[in-house]
Amino acid sequence: MTDFTSATDADGVAVITWDVPGKSMNVLSLEGLEELDGLVDAALADEAVKGIVITSGKDTFAGGMDLNIIAKMKDMVGDDPAKGLFEGVMRMHGVLRKIERAGMDAKTNKGGKPIAAALPGTALGIGLELPLATHRIFAADNPQAKIGLPEIMVGIFPGAGGTTRLVRKMGAMAASPFLLEGKLSAPAKAKSAGIIDEVVEDPLAAAKAWVLNAKDTDILKPWDAKGYKMPGGAPYHPAGFMTFVGASAMVNGKTKGVYPAAKALLSAVYEGSLVPFDTALKIEARWFTNVLMNPSSGAMIRSLFINKEALEKGAVRPEGVPDQRVKKVGVLGAGMMGAGIALVSAQAGIEVVLIDQKQEAADRGKAYTESFMDKGIAKKKATPEKKEEVLGRITATTDYSALADADLIIEAVFEDPKVKAEVTKAVDAVTSDDCIFATNTSTLPISELAKASKNPEQFIGIHFFSPVEKMMLVEIIRGKETGDRAVAKALDYVRQIRKTPIVVNDARFFYANRCIIPYINEGIRMVKEGVSPALIENAAKLVGMPLGPLQLVDETSIDLGAKIARATRAAMGDAYPDGEVDEVIFWMEEQGRLGRKAKAGFYDYDESGKRQGLSETVKAKYPEAEDQPSLTDVQHRLLFVQSLEAVRALEDGVLMDIREGDVGAILGWGFAPWSGGPLSWLDMLGAAYAAERCDGLEEAYGPRFHCPDLLRDMASKGQSFYGRFGTQADAA
Q1: At what angle do helices 336-347 and 359-378 cross, to 10 degrees?
Q2: Of 36, 293, 265, 57, whose CA–CA distance to 150 is shortest?
Q3: What is the pLDDT of residues 547-561, one digit of tens each?
Q4: Which is more confident, 726 or 173?
Q5: DSSP 3-state assignment of 505?
Q6: Cβ(115)–Cβ(98) under 8 Å?
Q7: Nearest Cα to 643, choosing from 669, 624, 618, 620?
């Protein structure tokens, strides 16, 4: 079985078709690269061939590179993985450069054969880098297709010539959104941007016609012609100089220096623009190798691509349970959370019944979808017809009997066990025995809430993150009596709404809140200790957290923190560990400093709710100490307090799969994505160092940094999480 095949038609056009067996979307492997190389050689050497078209046998072109290629390259040169990677990447450059030069004479730039790419649909990563090496790119007029280079999103950058070619084609400024942000475009927009050349109804036919009429000048790339000048100016040009100064500032401002791929990409572009094209490719390959050798990139690829994809495809779905696709969902509570759940469900083609106590409240919940769709229409991401279609799936009502034929109920009412119990019983009275009941709660134990249900085995937790339409993670919580069908139903539903699920066992705060609350509390503790709030917030951002702990508690509201603190204290009694935090939180609550919603919290806000800076009122109450801790010490406190809780969740059986621990942390609360997640971060540090650092932090700051037995055992055995839990790692 082969990935590439070739056939020459009666007109002399060799059509090379990419069609990887057993894959829904083409990916490039080392074996496939060799096949492509051989077919290109044969076509260029065949006098009967007038031109070449590279296309796909699927309705998409390609989704990127087979990431196993990286491991294979590392093993190509004995014990020198860097050399193996560099030589493997240069091999890819060699094949694509052969396509680009197409047999033309090195001195005259004549005599080559035209090569075009015909894209029937989505072309991502190497799926665009390959077409960029051809002489003209034709794409199908398919607005659903995506074209782009998303590598930066998983910790690498386009390293098969895409970086160098796109910059030389468009200029550094124009190429930056596609390289540094991984921006994806529909074919029409990709053409407008200058990424591809033609958008047509039949790209294969158009490509064939073009290669039969192309001249020598049509196939000579600008950067191979004499007198080539980079669009927008090279670094030594006044305009180009300002572009690169601005780009450097932008990259450092956005990444805070913790994402190696962005800096490496910019270095490859800057250095490559100072030299001839072939030398630029070699520079790109060196920086790409540098990134691939960085543990951050490997961890990001593993968590944000391999593990995330595995979870979305059902890696933790119970075996033997038939398809549980949701046809009709009932959503109880039309507040912000319920309205968001109704929106994403209707967008996924699911019929929705949205229920609230009053019709006006239910109507407001449905209006949330209308407003969302109106914004989409204004941005040309939706049509009026699509809006009516989505709204037509939502029934806003107060009548519980409308739930009679629902196969999934999602309750999103107040975080009050009594209210939830009443709603559960009301639903049980009208739904069939097969209906699965899910509660959307962030803190209340599922097993306790399930006691109100007539079918505890069909009762489960589905914890959405706010805002529902933007947050990609959904935390599924399995109660003590929850059955496999309920878990499968929740997983199939999450897949329908195109989000990423993790499944955890029931325990206080489940997984996400169990880890994020200590992060917030550690920041508040430091305020009470006299650590500068600016140091706390900037230390968090400089280590890759999207929000500092003080800003995060302002956003989620201080009174919610106080409510959780009181409930936790009541449940834990003398074992409650956060009294020092409560002192600050309760004082803030008394002062009415409830966060952004009150326009006063750890930050001050203007009338529109815009942050104005850290509060002088808080600083006056908790003055800054004369001696401040080191940046690293603050960062370690903030990261370790989260990571150790992830380890304890694994020890306690709350986490059942380390992949879910890392993916859930990044997507759920933004745990330093460059690290691959808390367990990957501890693997980077090494168990021995992590255990030693725990001892030092515990001695200095208290028992919350006590080294978990699991981590201590791993340290004694020289193990890592992804080494010890090999079954999961192998599955990833």
Answers
A1: 50
A2: 265
A3: 999 999 999 888 888
A4: 173
A5: strand
A6: no
A7: 669
Query: Does the N-terminal peptide bond of residue 143 adopt cis geometry, omega within 30 degrees of 0?
Result: no
pLDDT given for residue 727 in this prediction = 54
Q: According to the model, what pLDDT value does residue 572 have?
A: 76
- Measure CA 541 to chain center: 18
> Shortest CA distance to 640 belongs to which of 600, 692, 596, 603?
692
The 10 Å Cβ neighbour count of residue 426 is 14
β-pairing verdict for 611-614 and 603-605:
antiparallel
Residue 322: closest CA among 153, 491, 177, 461? 491
- For residue 119, the cross-strand partners are 139
The C-alpha atoms of residue 71 and residue 38 are separated, in whole angstroms, by 23
For 338, 636, 639, the CA distances from 698, given in Å and listed in that order, are: 42, 12, 14
Contact between residue 687 and residue 714 where contact means Cβ atoms under 8 Å apart: yes
pLDDT for residue 49: 96
CA 256 to chain centre: 18
Sort residue 718 into left (φ over 0), alpha (ψ -120 to 50) or beta.
left
Contact 410, 363 (CB under 8 A): no
- Specify the DSSP element, H or E, that contains 92: helix 81-101
Confirm if 445 and 654 have CB atoms less than 8 A apart. no
Beta bridge partners of 198: 138
Q: What is the CA radius of gyration of the chain?
A: 28
Per 3-state DSSP, the chain is made up of helix, strand and coil in percentages (nearest 5) of 55, 10, 35
Extract the tokens encoding 249. 């500032």
CA distance 55 to 63: 13
Round to the nearest angstrom and report the end-to-end CA distance of the chain.
Answer: 25
From CA 19, how far away is CA 5, in angstroms rounded?
8
Q: What is the mean pLDDT of residues 91-98?
A: 96
- With beta carbons less than 8 A apart as the criterion, state whether 265 and 179 touch: yes
Sign of the alpha-carbon torsion through 229, 231, 232, 236: negative
Pairing type for strands 328-332 and 408-411 reads parallel
The CB density around residue 254, as the number of other CB atoms within 10 Å, is 11
Helix (H) or strand (E) holding 440: none
pTM more than 0.70: yes
**Which residues have C-beta within 8 Å of that of residue 419, sequence separation ≥ 6?**
413
Distance of CA 677 to the CA centre of its chain: 12
Q: Give the position of tokens 């745990």.
A: 671
Digit-coded pLDDT (tens) for 398-427:
999 999 999 999 999 988 889 999 999 999
Predicted confidence at residue 570, as pLDDT, reads 78
613: tokens are: 């800076």
Quick check: helix, strand or coil at residue 162?
A: helix
Q: How many angstroms separate the CA atoms of 267 and 261, rounded?
A: 10
Return the number of other C-beta atoms located less than 10 Å from residue 44's C-beta: 18
Rounded CA gap, 562 and 586, in Å? 6
Whether the CA torsion 177, 179, 184, 189 is positive or negative: it is positive
Q: Is residue 612 within 8 Å of residue 631, measured between CB atoms? A: no
In the block, tokens 């706390």 appear at 536
Query: Which of 128, 151, 90, 132 shows the shortest CA–CA distance to 279?
Result: 90
DSSP assignment, residue 225? S
List pLDDT tens digits, range 211-259.
999 999 999 999 999 989 988 877 777 776 767 777 777 777 777 778 8
Q: Which residues are catalytic?
A: 463
The answer to whether the CB of 647 falls within 8 A of the CB of 710 is: yes
The dihedrals phi and psi of 6, each to the nearest 5 degrees, come to -140, 140
CB atoms within 10 A of CB 529: 13
Query: What does the DSSP 8-state code read for residue 134?
Result: S
Q: Which H or E run contains 477? A: strand 473-478
Q: Is 544 left (phi over 0), alpha (psi -120 to 50) or beta?
A: left
Q: How far apart are CA 457 and CA 108, in angstroms?
A: 76
